[in-house]
Amino acid sequence: MRLACSTIFAAALISILAGGTAGAQEPPKVVLAPAAGGVWLARNDVQIPNETGTRFSLQELVGAGPTELTRAELAWNVNPRHALRVVYAPVRVERSGTPAVGLLFAGEQFAAGVPADAVYKFSSYRATYRYRFYQGDTWSWRVGGTAFIRDARVALAQGAIAAEDTDVGFVPLAHLNGQARLGERWLLVLDLDVAAAPQGRAIDFGGRLRYALTDRWSLGAGYRTIEGGADVDQVFNFAWLNAAVASFAVSF
Questions:
Q1: Nearest partner of 39 among 248, 246, 247, 241, judged by Cα
Q2: Span 137-156, pLDDT tens digits
Q3: For the domain that residue 185 is a member of, what is the CATH number?
């Protein structure tokens, strides 16, 4: 968790250097923000089982993409300092490719030069608590923690041969959120969930720009990157995904 601690320390340092606690416009009580866009695979290296399976690039097998992406976020500002957030972010890549070499994957042998169907699923469910430790004329900063449940699956099928590896697990993440009011209608939102351990890491960073159409409705666009994975006895899988998303938000 050294990376997470460094992130929190950096956020605190920002507040000290920025100085001032002048109050800015308080956020709305509840914000619902669905989003959609495309996701690209920058990296996806797989070896299952670890040590005895064949290490291969799923990105090279099926291509970088893009693949359709959806995301939904609900934020509740309980009071000016305390807030909660829940996120549902499913990712599913399902395409075909032809292995250049034979692959031993999840106990099955897949032949080289024969088309295969591949599935990569990485859906996340998140619940975040965050505390606002700084409020200035432009920037506000929150720090907290995220309970992250991942639902992951890697599968290959080639004719009558099929194999898969699934994993559902819980990971605690450190959370940092920054918001900058760039004008009467423009808002820049940054958020980071992060954790690191000898067995692996998880990094989810997003930035988006929102434009308020009315007091309740706004439009947004931004970028999100997700990187991480695990290197344990059963599984080696590290992936890096980049996404471009557009969203709308309604405030209550």
A1: 241
A2: 999 999 999 999 999 999 99
A3: 2.40.128.90
